[in-house]
Amino acid sequence: VVEIAAVSADELGEGSQRIREALAVLRELDHAMHAEFDELVATVRLFNRAAIAGSTTTGLSSLRYWGQMYLRYPDDFEKEDWTTFLLEHLVHESSHILLHSIMSRDPLLANGFTSRYQAPIRSDHRPLYGIYHAMFVLSRIFHILSRYADVTSTPSARAARDLARERFHQGYDTIVEHAELTTAGQTLTASCKDIVAEQR
How many Å apart are CA 135 and CA 29, to the nearest integer? Predict the structure, then answer.
């Protein structure tokens, strides 16, 4: 269970403005990815960490709330580079929504829930369905942060880019070794690898 709390009026105002600015940057970096976001995402809802100790998250999206994403208001150190933080997590959640739509037509892997493996983003073990999602999302995060890091060369952008690449390869290797992929799943997996490889 993830505990969340409301943002203040000031946080909502600043967060909304920063999101608009980040989306403008996304449009400049990759027009097609921005168009996907515009098509798939109807609402971004900001939230804060809960005051009580417990599980927290940075972003949420769900098939139950199609077109809506929840995004955590950044901590102070994350606000030092708002754009990197927002690009990473706006692309993260919109990519989940896109993959949900693809998987509504083709499951991509036949053994998505039969076994659990170390996840590239989470600390625990997850089914291959979740690892496939992570692999897909990370390829797109790496793609956009690579372009952003090339433009800005900020340490936070480079660090986020490098972490996304490392985690992508962890997820990709697990999928290649263990997943029983459909034809579409094989094609999409290869395209994820190509996206990451072309940025080197």
Answer: 21
Alpha carbon distance 158, 189 (integer Å):
24
CA–CA separation, 32 and 100 (whole Å): 18
Cα first-last separation, the chain: 38
Six-digit token pair at 97?
């929504």
Q: Sign of dihedral through CA atoms 135, 40, 26, 78?
A: negative
Asked if 45 and 90 touch (Cβ cutoff 8 Å), the reply is no
Sequence letter at residue 110 = A
Query: How far is Cα 51 from Cα 137, in angstroms, rounded to an integer?
Result: 29
C-alpha dihedral sign at 43, 46, 50, 54:
positive
Is the Cβ–Cβ distance between 121 and 167 less than 8 Å?
yes
Report the C-alpha gap between 41 and 22 in whole angstroms.
15
Residues 148 and 157: their CA atoms lie apart, in Å, by 7
How many Å apart are CA 31 and CA 16, to the nearest integer?
21
Residue 141: Cβ within 10 Å count: 24
pTM surpassing 0.85? yes
Residues 142-190: pLDDT tens digits? 999 999 999 998 999 999 999 999 999 999 999 999 999 999 999 999 9
Which phi-psi region, left, alpha or beta, contains residue 4 (left: φ > 0; alpha: ψ -120 to 50)? beta
